[in-house]
Write the structure tokens for this entry.
Amino acid sequence: MILSGTFTFNGPRQKVWDLLQDPGVLAKALPGTERLTMSGPDRYEGVMKVSIGPMTAAKFDVTVTLADKQPPERFTLQIDGKGGVGFARGSAAVTLQEQGDGGTAMDYTSDVQIGGRIASVGQRLIESVSRMMMRQALEALDRELRARIDADASGS
Amino acid sequence: MSPEARYVNARVRRNEDARLLTGRARFVDDVQLPGLLHVAFVRSEHAHGRLIKVDGAAARRRPGVVAVYTFDDLGEYGRPAPVLVPPPPISGLVFHPRTHRPLASGKVRYVGEPIAMIVAESRYLAEDAVRDVIVDVDPLDAVVDLEAALTAGAARVHDDLESNAAAHVVQRKGDYAAARDRADVIVARRFTYDRGAAAALENRCVLAQWDRQAEELTIWDTTQAPIPIRNGLASRLGLSESQVRVVAPFVGGGFGPKIMMFYPEELLVPWASIRLARPIKWTEDRQENFFATTQERGQLHDAEMALTRDGRILGIRDTFLFDTGAYDPYGLTIPINTQCTLLGPYDVPNYSSEFTAVFTNKTIVTPVRGAGRQHGVFVSERLLDLAARELGIDRVEIRKRNLLGPDRFPHNHEIMFQDSAPLVYDSGDYLPALEQAAATIGYAELVRQQAQRRSGTRRVGVGIACYVEGTGIGPYEGARVTVELSGKVRVATGVGTQGQGHYTVFAQVVADVLGVSVEDVQVITGDTREFQWGTGTFASRGAAVAGSACHAAAMSVREKIVALAASVLGAEPDRLEVAGGRVSVRGAADRTISLAQLAARANPLRGAVRPGTEPGLESTAYFGPDRGSTASGVHAMIVEVDVETAMVEVKRYVVVHDCGRIINPLLVEGQIHGGVAHGLGNAFYEQLVYDEQGQLLNASFMDYLLPTATDVPPIETAHRETPSPFNPIGLKGVGEAGCIPTGAAFAQAVEDALNIEILDIPLSPDRLFRLIQQAADR
């Protein structure tokens, strides 16, 4: 499954970059994340719960590795998820570009292979569920970004 | 005097229906035993990968789990399953047998391949423990597309082979190249026919019980072939055949995948039952059925037909790829069926056919109803339609010009059939069937109305397609017929029943021979303790082969009855009449004896059974035809296509078929109705969709569409009877006939409605929608 898109953050690129490297923030922003901890340099491990159609609250053990980092512009993610109803593995490329209006545009392209029961039963819904999760995550991140910017502003 | 036909050819109601309809029929999953253990399997989620680690330690610790088995626990029992059907002796044939092991070892080769077996006190516990098993797989590129599979850089399903080619077979008749040079017109196209599931109502189920004291193993199994399963398991388990009893009670639909497969589950459940000395049951769930039960279809044909200007076939050339899945235990039955059935009812003087069977990372392929025949019919019927269009000849007319005439039988096609015998048609009369089907559907009138039919948003098309079906192949079946002391008759035979009506048709044959009421004939099938010689239910052979064995055994019992009655009644045998459950002297109403009394006299408590005779009124007989008999028929249908939604509604469906002499028209119609529903499913609804990584994307009835009662039209059936000379009653098979030409007729009808070209089956509303759009863009 290939999922790609653009999202505009309401904040400067460096702040967006910092946000995306913070496992605590990611754990809050990614829907269904029960736990996400740094297990090594640029490596995160955790547990996510995903509901896709007839499969409700399926748990996945997730490992995410960051690579090809060029702060604050681009990085790639290797994603490996395994659970009782199947697996997901793949990669995502993320680039950040400053916009003239103080915002930051994020382009992302991910290519994830889905297998097991989740592929054979949830197929019709995987893409729409993934898009929804991605949108919810990005909106949550943007809210967090705004909160940080506001905190910085009031703190200074 | 010879028996009177009272039941054969009559619309006798089914003996088994009272039990089936009131829920008293026993299926394997109904069997409950004290101390029964339950099984769940850990299956591969990857279509292709190296197995790095399989660790069942955590699962073994779960309370309620009795055993966890991985490949390493199997020892010698882990060796590959046998090749079930060796390929026929065709010169130059290449075949690489690669069969599955009971549990995966080293590599996984399709999604759903069993990796570990969990035995627990309940199915719930077993399913829970599946998640405790650690399986590490290093994924490899999956082999999915047939053409890509044969390219040089492709990943290999079996590392020890040079390529993914599982087999290569060439069969030739005449000289196609020379015929092509003489031809006025050549039509050539690429055709595809994609995978489908058999989707039997009852999933598979295996229950095994090892009796330690008797040292006997009883296996209840949803198999179409209990005797070969018994023999194979006995040998593999190191037991004698007499220590193993396989019972296939009522089975809720077979359609091919339940045939003599030695499925991993079928190998493992009995083995574990002996090891644990407990009864063990595994019942497949519907999700598993989509991965773990064999599937069919998946062929890609590049075919051409050479014709004269007046539409006579000079020859056909076909090169095709056949998807055999991850392993090929069933040999080459399907592609050879395709190769042979492509010739249809036509006079094809020159034929060149070549196929390559291809290993892919998909579920194993074995015959499903039709067993490759529909692919061949699809190719030749489509080529004829294309030729008709190109030559400006009517579709029915071009077929008439090419049909084999009634004087051409037996007709030798000079190639080898799947039963290792030459492809020889025994008998047939094709032209009247085509004319009857065309007249019944109103073909000529529909052709005249073509312009009107093709206007508006709901367009009407007519399709008409011919087929032959090789049926009733050997090697043999047997039956034992016994007149019991009650005067009732018991028939035991080795073929299992999956709903076809064996309890009725075999009873009809025997009732006529013995002059008893059909309700008084009890038929037992599918229990190796009752009858232990035979092969199984496949290739539309039950009635023709086992039915003929029942007939032979009944004739032998009749001789015993007549001989004994002649001596008891003091009359010449030729003056005796066997009817109404009695033997009577013709013209002397008082000189009569019932079969019950004769049965008692044949098994005396005092006196002697004379030398050279046997006690009882019982005989066992076998029947083995030299080769199969060839059934035939014509399907015609009218469809209405909504050009805006691309939905197709079948308005009328006509079947004119010839399965030789008919034992029971009611049952024949039932077989045809079911077959047509199956065929329509394969034409328009059903397709197993795999992604490029070999993941099956529609493994549930939410996404895999079966035709429902509202999708299947009323079917008008007409019977024609050209008896087969290969068996005493003149029977041919009919179990698969309904689904063989369905795709070809459907494609033609939709094509006729829309004036487009259809080369791929199954269609679906979205595929058809795209074809309509493409045609509009041109």
